[in-house]
Amino acid sequence: MILLDGKVASASVKENIKATVSAIISNNQRVPHLAAILIGNDGASETYVASKVRNCKEVGFQSTLIRFDNNVEEKVLLDKINELNNDDNIDGILVQLPLPKHIQEAKVIQAIHPDKDVDGFHPINAGKLVQGLPGIIPATPLGIMLLFEHYKIDTKGKNAIIIGRSYIVGRPMSVLLSSNLLYGNSTVTLCHSYTSNLKELCLQADIIVSAIGKPEFIKADMIKQNAIVIDVGITRVNDVTSVKGFKLKGDVLFNEVKEKASAITPVPGGVGLMTIAGLLKNTLAAYQKKMN
Ligand code: NAD
Fold first, then answer.
1. Domains present along the chain, CATH in parentheses
2. Can you give the pTM of this predicted structure?
């Protein structure tokens, strides 16, 4: 069994980005700059944004964290995004999700200029992805593709099942894996909460990507011998033995499934780290597009 280690694969992506930033600095140019917007103080969102900011620093990017109270007016947020769109020193903008209920997610995503949309959620980028045009790919699916590339996972002609159809992970992942790409060309089945024969489909799959957010939902009896298992799910599960009071759990019952899989990602230490690598890569690409 190969452990698809997000720490190792993301370090390699980050080394390449760092080298590019060093060359930018040697040329006396400004470095890529990411603006992150965080609304409220949800624990998980705080952790994700802090990690994104830390990783920007690690590769030599500039970053700006903009915080708003949970009750910020939608217009104030949209005005800030507009200001960042018009700021030539900002290359990438991300708004950490989820948003408070009174703010329309679609409106916020569509307010970000597509060229600065480093999460790749804007409909223009989603459309480009579907048509195979160059655009910004959502960070998590991009991170999974980088993981396949790092471990040279042969996806061509394989049966892949993707569980979860969000525009953040499952749906764009289904497009990438079925596209005519070096680490694509799989035959993809996209499953969701109304899929009636999930276990049957999973048992036929060479590759399983699970993005549902149900801890330890995928058990060993649901996967084929030697399947490749990519666990996107991250759920905080109460745990009194942990200092933080919770533990992170993936969608996959790791200890059981690892005995049957040929390759598997851990949680934490798998796709989450690759998502950050994807975000950094998108920010660098947005910068390069602007500067060239
Ligand atoms: P979501 O939470 O918006 O939706 C969940 C999806 O799962 C839906 O499409 C639903 O149809 C499907 N689903 C739910 N129960 C199901 C079932 N029993 N069988 C089949 N499908 C089922 O999706 P999301 O935003 O993609 O998040 C999914 C999980 O991935 C969450 O745990 C989230 O925290 C995690 N996530 C992790 C990363 C990362 O970097 N590792 C990034 C994004 C999301």
1. 29-113 (3.40.50.10860), 139-272 (3.40.50.720)
2. 0.98
